[in-house]
Amino acid sequence: MSVTDDPAVTVCFVVTIDGIELGSFNTCEGLGCEVVLEQREEGGNNGHLWQLPTRLKFSNVKLSRPLTRETEKVAKWFASMTGGFSRKTAHIEARTGDGKKVAQWGLLEVVPVRWTGPSFNPESPKVAIETIEIAHHGYVMEG
What we know:
The chain has one helix and ten strands. The longest helix has 9 residues. This is Phage tail-like protein.
């Protein structure tokens, strides 16, 4: 394995939605898809069920990070939805600790699902974490 092929051990995820950068996040969960199968029985054939692919199902993507000044960007993005919104294209870029791009995913027709702010409790001092969750309708890979 060459030095340039080393896996990204330390990564951050930079999120951009239609050119508006929401900043970098420490965790990213839910990138993936699933083929939904429909089972059909064939008369006279008791040996198996037919597994027929019907559609692709995309899971929601959750991104988390410690509270930063970039939180305002997320708040503005969610606030812009109050008067209605249009579906946007998002890009999630995985970067190494020194900022080199490792991989990129494009998400089609992004819909915001949830923003969860930090919980403040003086009895349990923890890092203040925020999480955003977005739904999408497929991937676009740009070369």
